[in-house]
Inverse folding.
């Protein structure tokens, strides 16, 4: 067995047997992994407080042939604020679910981990609305996964100058000359398109620094929601609960 140190976040934890937990970690070094935390459900265990979702830090694990075993952890952020905010917690669980859905073992998930961490930091800050945080995260997450829309030129002819419509089916914007090729093309506000372009082009560290007007926020929700339905194709349980709590 090989002992290694991983930097990452707990995405989920489930009981195993009488005292153990199975923890899913999103890590910088190994992508998404599952690790057994033996005795983590015992009140006296040093692993009790470090195997809960949202926990971010460094984790000492043994790497076996087919599994990992967590030995200890040094926590940088528990995101404790989310444990005292029902709405914030369900936004957070939804964000964890998306990361869990996209992440793969042995894949470089540095960008996704950084996005998740910065998103949770924004969530516990009162500076911008939770709905805007959600739309930014959703669009950036599909982009990090290589499924983001083409927003800077017409997907058919490459034109960058003419007025544009947005098509979920076509995966981006179309100029007015090509708009007839999309059965679902819709006009969107210039401010909405600019916001989406900004989200795709901006480094994660600078993403959560702006607010938008209510009409733009509403349109972002409609467009990004439709895009997620088309390209993710899965409704997470956490999102169903979030809708009852926050909408």
């Amino acid at each position: 067995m090989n002992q290694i140190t991983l930097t990452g976040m707990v995405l989920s934890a489930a009981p195993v047997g009488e005292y153990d937990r199975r923890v899913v970690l999103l890590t910088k070094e190994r992508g998404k992994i599952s690790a057994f935390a033996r005795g983590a459900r015992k009140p006296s265990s040093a692993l009790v407080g470090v195997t809960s979702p949202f926990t971010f830090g460094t984790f000492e694990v043994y790497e076996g042939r087919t599994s990992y075993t967590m030995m200890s952890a040094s926590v940088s952020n528990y995101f404790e604020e989310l444990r005292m905010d029902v709405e914030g917690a369900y936004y957070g669980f939804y964000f964890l679910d998306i990361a869990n859905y996209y992440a793969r073992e042995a894949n470089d998930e540095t960008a996704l981990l950084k996005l998740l961490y910065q998103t949770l930091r924004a969530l516990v800050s009162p500076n911008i609305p939770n709905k805007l945080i959600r739309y930014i995260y959703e669009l950036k997450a599909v982009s990090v996964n290589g499924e983001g829309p083409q927003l800077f030129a017409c997907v058919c002819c490459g034109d960058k100058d003419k007025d544009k419509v947005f098509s979920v089916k076509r995966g981006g914007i179309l100029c007015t000359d090509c708009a007839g090729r999309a059965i679902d093309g819709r006009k969107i506000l210039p401010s909405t398109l600019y916001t989406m372009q900004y989200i795709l082009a901006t480094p994660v560290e600078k993403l959560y620094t702006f607010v938008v007007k209510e009409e733009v926020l509403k349109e972002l929700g409609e467009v990004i929601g439709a895009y997620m339905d088309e390209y993710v194709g899965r409704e997470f349980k956490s999102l169903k609960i979030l809708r009852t709590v926050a909408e």
